[in-house]
Design goal:
alpha+beta; three-stranded antiparallel sheet; two-stranded antiparallel sheet; 12 helices; globular
């Protein structure tokens, strides 16, 4: 079998605040851009690094879709509208499970969109997020001023990520306080699947994305562990699908070498310098892609 990925990577990911990290070609004037950053003070590293969830005394970490969005921006990956779940599809999600899963999906889609100059699309996806958040009783936990800032700074990518992070941070707080573990788990699972779906679209041509795809075994384990602990009608459908994905990953050859992170306190940046190597055949890549697509279809159909 032909090996398409034998990627040795030094995972040097800079964890800034959301507002400082994600920029692209869309720019305001210096004064207006500074005003946006001063007005939106969201220091939410976890929106970039990973989503953390504590259940039954255990902490689970699932990579954030924002990581994939950042890689797409850095590699200047062309925009593909067909990758995303259409915002008007939200109207067909009638169960709490479907709403939660697709809230995660739309969050990943908005992170992706933030790299491109398509403000009308961003507004439509934010409205989809707002609508589902309202249905899940999360919307009421978000300060209206945050939503007003979205409209004001929609064409400033870093501010848009900040608003998105604040929306999900407020929702996460609400879900934890009200012990809505099932809803929180499904939001994380939906966002992770959509992030993987987007990453796979360009992975073959980009070693960094290929490496990201190959390093997801622990995320799959975390999602499975969370799904097994919750009470929700979707778990009986999703667990076998994630177990099938785990089986595909079990055949990958992967080595990991831990290297202590380096923190630049002046710049407020932490560099993760651990090294990993993943070997993936074309058949294994196709199996991952097909299984991710099957799970995504279950979520968005």
């Amino acid at each position: 079998m032909k090996v398409i990925g034998s990627i040795s990577t030094r995972m040097t990911i800079a964890f800034f605040s959301v507002a400082a990290l994600v920029g692209c070609a869309e720019e305001k004037s210096g004064d207006e851009h500074q005003e946006a950053q001063e007005e939106i003070q969201v220091q939410n590293d976890n929106a970039v690094a990973s989503n953390m969830m504590k259940l039954d005394g255990e902490i689970f970490s699932i990579p954030s879709p924002v990581q994939t969005a950042i890689l797409f921006r850095k590699m200047k990956v062309p925009y593909q509208d067909e990758l995303l779940n259409a915002p008007d599809e939200r109207e067909k999600y009638t169960t709490r499970s479907a709403k939660a899963l697709n809230l995660g999906v739309y969050g990943a889609d908005l992170a992706y969109l933030s790299n491109y100059n398509n403000n009308q699309q961003k507004i439509l996806y934010f409205k989809a997020i707002e609508s589902l958040s309202n249905d899940l009783n999360i919307r009421n936990q978000v300060d209206q001023a945050v939503l007003d800032k979205f409209a004001k700074y929609v064409d400033i990518p870093d501010s848009l990520h900040a608003v998105n992070a604040e929306l999900f941070s407020a929702g996460d707080r609400y879900l934890k306080e009200n012990k809505e573990d099932a809803t929180a788990t499904l939001i994380l699972a939906g966002g992770w699947i959509e992030g993987m779906h987007i990453a796979l679209s360009a992975a073959k041509a980009n070693p960094a994305l290929m490496s990201r795809v190959g390093e997801q075994q622990s995320a799959i384990n975390s999602i499975l562990a969370l799904l097994e602990r919750i009470e929700d009608p979707m778990k009986d459908t999703l667990i076998p699908q994630f177990e099938a994905l785990k089986e595909v990953y079990s055949d990958l050859e992967m080595t990991y070498t831990f290297v202590k992170p380096i923190t630049d306190t002046k710049e407020k940046v932490t560099y993760l310098n651990s090294k990993s190597e993943v070997k993936m055949t074309e058949e294994q890549f196709a199996a991952i892609q097909n299984t991710i697509q099957e799970i995504r279809t279950t979520i968005i159909q």
